[in-house]
Design a protein that fits this description.
With about 375 residues, this protein is of the alpha/beta class. It has helices spanning about 5-20, 40-45, 50, 60-65, 80-90, 105-115, 155-165, 190-195, 195-200, 210-220, 230-240, 280-290, 310-325, 350-360; strands at about 70-75, 95-100, 120-125, 140-145, 175-185, 210, 220-230, 245-255, 290-295, 300-305, 330-335, 340-345, 365-370. It has two domains: about 5-255, Vaccinia Virus protein VP39 (Rossmann fold, 3-Layer(aba) Sandwich); about 280-350, 2-Layer Sandwich (Gyrase A, domain 2). Helices cover about 35% and strands about 20% of the residues.
């Protein structure tokens, strides 16, 4: 690898090296990932120790709709699970390339490939920002809770565009496509979380605002960029403009028009609830600046708030009143805890309907989809 690692690369590499050494599945509790990401039929033929080692937050294989004979690139391939699933779908005439920067993960993936006799899979050491892959040689790029870990996501998007094939007018073959599961936000994360190396490794600190994710792919040259919260809980959290991480699927296609030419002028998404105001958003930002820790719970998140106790409580209570009045998709709970105040946000079934309404006016190049 010729690229010089950054402190973020080093922190992420050590985080995942330890996962490989301990066989600890899931990138971190903040990802919301688990061992039930895939349909049982999809992983039924794999040995348990391979099928259960997932470091992702979704199922990019089903999302990608892979076809026999295609060449697939997996960004941050980890122990190789998604590569092996992809290899089954593209068949012996297809090819799968996994790229990872962590030697321990590469060793684990290659050992797994040998166990499976996966002849159409290979693993290469490299950074997402400088992929060891030839230009225009890939049909599909997949990734599972990894792009958020990069300190230079725009360069990752440019590299993905570079390695994907352009459309072939003569044969009618479309351009390459992107099928990614990742962690995003709707609003900026607290600065303290963004600067936390531990949070980078746990898939939180590097999460992009969904607008920046879409804008970055569009500026790299991609068209038809689509973002879809993964679950009902994610749909509810996506509608809250306070930088809450949630899992989403991201898809896009390479049209061959070139960098920046497919960017949509209408890509901004209205994220505030009906009747929202600038003052309300400013209050949310003021509260956001006091968050020092985010902890996932089964149906939402808990935030630790610090600062002057009276001021912080007043901000939190005002926020709850505003959000509860117009955004009934969340249940709120505020309590004093050691070190500050705990604000708990948990989604309700009404969140799904609110998310649909909040994003119904999305621009032509940004589509929030419901199942």
């Amino acid at each position: 690898m010729s690229q010089s690692p950054t402190p973020i690369h080093d922190a992420v590499r050590e985080h995942y090296a330890e996962r490989a050494r301990s066989a600890d599945s899931c990138c971190g509790s903040s990802c919301g990932c688990n061992n039930d990401l895939y349909d049982e039929k999809l992983i039924a033929d794999l040995p348990g120790e391979i099928a259960s080692f997932t470091l992702g937050c979704g199922d990019p294989i089903t999302l990608a709709s892979l076809q026999p004979g295609e060449t697939v690139l997996d960004l941050g391939s980890g122990g190789g699970l998604d590569c092996f699933l992809a290899a089954k779908q593209v068949g012996p005439t297809g090819h799968v390339i996994g790229v990872d920067m962590t030697p321990e993960m590469l060793a684990k993936a290659r050992a797994n490939a040998a166990k499976l006799n996966a002849a159409n899979v290979e693993f290469r050491e490299g950074y997402l920002e400088k992929l060891p892959v030839e230009d225009a040689s890939v049909d599909v790029v997949i990734s599972n809770c990894v792009i958020n870990l990069s300190p230079d996501k725009q360069q990752v998007f440019r590299e993905v565009y570079r390695v994907l094939r352009s459309p072939d007018p003569a044969s009618g073959k479309p351009g390459g496509r992107v099928a990614v599961s990742d962690i995003v936000t709707n609003g900026q994360l607290p600065e303290a979380v963004q600067k936390s190396m531990e949070a980078w490794g746990a898939c939180v600190a590097g999460a992009l605002d969904q607008r920046d994710y879409v804008r970055g792919l569009s500026e790299a040259g991609f068209a038809n960029v689509q973002v879809q919260p993964k679950s009902d809980t994610d749909k509810a959290l996506a509608a809250l403009p306070v930088g809450v991480p949630f899992s989403a699927t991201v898809t896009a296609v390479k049209t061959g028009q070139g960098e920046g030419e497919t960017r949509s002028k209408g890509e901004e998404i209205e994220c505030s609830a009906p009747g929202g105001s600038e003052a309300r958003l400013k209050d949310s930002e003021a509260l956001l600046s006091r968050i020092v820790n985010i902890t996932p719970i089964a149906d939402g998140y808990e935030f630790l708030l610090t600062g002057d106790p009276a001021e912080t409580r007043a901000l939190a209570e005002a926020f709850i009143r505003e959000e509860a009045a117009c955004c009934s998709f969340l249940h709120f709970d505020l309590a004093e805890v050691p070190g500050g105040l705990r604000l708990r946000l948990a989604s309700t079934p009404a969140g799904v309907e609110f998310a649909k309404e909040a994003f119904s006016q999305a621009g032509t190049n940004v589509k929030w989809l419901s199942n």
